[in-house]
What does this fold into?
Amino acid sequence: MNKEMIGLAMLEVKASGLKLSEDEKQFVIFYAYKMNDMAQVKLLLKEMEHASEPGEMDDIFRRYSKQMNLRGGIEHLAENLLVYIERYRIEQENAIGYLANTLRVNGISISEEEIRQTEMVQMKEKIMKEASR
It folds into this structure.
């Protein structure tokens, strides 16, 4: 799986400043994964930015879907779910880093690795205990 392309597409969506629905974001990320070409992703986002008439976004999705030569059935479903999983792994890593940094700034020393390995309930208890000192 092309993890870098998924991460780059996520960054490009954020940088574009477009107010996209989750489905629209997912389409862009999946398109990036399938096409493996950031120039194409930027073109897609530019077209999405200029879509103002009702139905224009649907036309854009149809045209770009044809470019991807989407497969039907189980292969498409599995590939789509793998893209979702990778997207959430990236988001999880970002959240873990942000949490560890926030805790460190507030004088609580808990590493990213410790956050990854500890159950949420136990982590919450540890943070509360450290914060009350």
The chain has two domains: 1-70, 88-133. Residues 1-70 form one domain.
